[in-house]
Design goal:
The protein folds into two domains: about 110 residues, no CATH class; about 130 residues, Outer Surface Protein A, domain 3, CATH 3.90.930. The strands form two sheets. A three-stranded antiparallel beta sheet has the order 2-3-4, sandwiched between helices. The chain has a two-stranded antiparallel sheet with strand order 1-5. The chain is built from ten helices and five strands. By secondary structure, it is an alpha+beta fold. About 30% of the residues are buried. It starts with 12 loop residues before the first helix and ends with a strand.
Length: about 270
């Protein structure tokens, strides 16, 4: 096998590598679409057969990475269907680096357009939640400030509150947090989760990591709007206005205290110091 790739003409290593990746990941290997045909000694095995071996191995490894990132999606559709979807996804969207933690961001949009799963309209948002969970789990640790210095601020409304690097925000018209919870390996069979009237209510979720544990926390629309403003580096005043417009009974003091205690809000800066 070590002598199977033989250059019949001058071919750069970069070109060989590009063609190898394309043969492995661009589509189902057929006799007429193997780019490396002219560079492969096919006396013992055809170019199609040889590249098919490499392709199956590459796709299996990438699929295993997607299973780790989207375990709930795999449970919802079944192992065989999930692997078939992954193969089509990989053909369309190759990994762009050797770090598989970076791969799979486009999967939720793919699910929304995949013909054989389009009727499962909630899959996209469940996948968005799983990608957010994946990202939160890999984020840097937060640096917490000394909150006693907040008392020295002259105009708290003009502060910009800082959020943890592991913050992710997800909203959906489906109860994706409950769907996620019901499909966890460690959930008790006696767990009861009501989905009554959930179709009439949007779901707002914040994800963040505390040490090694990533938390999925349902929050109100006002809290979601406030954290979104902080994430976008808006002032505290702007965050209050936006949140109050979304939720008339929004209590900013209670929400601010809660997210500081959880470590979601990690500090602040005064505009003059930026």
């Amino acid at each position: 096998m070590t002598k199977s790739i033989l250059s019949s003409q001058v071919v750069t290593l970069a070109e060989l590598q590009r063609n190898f990746i394309a043969d492995c990941l661009s589509s189902k290997v057929k006799q007429g679409n193997v780019l490396l045909t002219k560079n492969i000694d096919s006396s013992a095995i055809s170019a199609q057969g040889l590249m098919g071996i490499y392709q199956n191995s590459a796709i299996a490894n990438i699929t295993n990475s997607l299973i780790l990132t989207y375990p709930v999606i795999e449970k919802l559709v079944g192992e065989a269907f999930f692997k078939a979807m992954c193969r089509e996804f990989i053909y369309l969207t190759w990994p762009q680096s050797g770090n598989m933690d970076d791969y799979g961001a486009e999967f939720p949009e793919f699910l929304a357009e995949f013909e054989h799963a389009k009727h499962l309209v909630y899959l996209k948002d469940v996948a968005r939640l799983e990608w957010a969970f994946h990202q939160s789990s890999l984020a840097d640790d937060a640096i917490i400030i000394d909150w006693s210095t907040l008392a020295q601020v002259s105009d708290i409304l003009q502060l910009k509150f800082l959020v943890t690097p592991s913050l992710s925000l997800v909203n959906s018209t489906f109860p994706v947090d409950k769907i996620w919870l019901l499909n966890q390996d460690d959930i008790s069979p006696d767990t009861k989760i009501s989905l009554t009237n959930e179709q009439d209510n949007d779901t707002f979720i914040v994800l963040f990591r505390q040490q090694l544990k990533t938390t999925i926390l349902p929050i109100s629309e006002g809290e979601f709007t406030m954290l979104h403003a902080f994430y976008n580096e808006e002032t505290f005043e702007k965050a209050i206005v936006d949140a109050s417009e979304k939720q008339v009974d929004f209590f900013v003091d209670d929400s601010l205290k809660k997210f500081i205690e959880l470590g979601v809000i990690t500090g602040f800066v005064e505009i003059d110091s930026i």
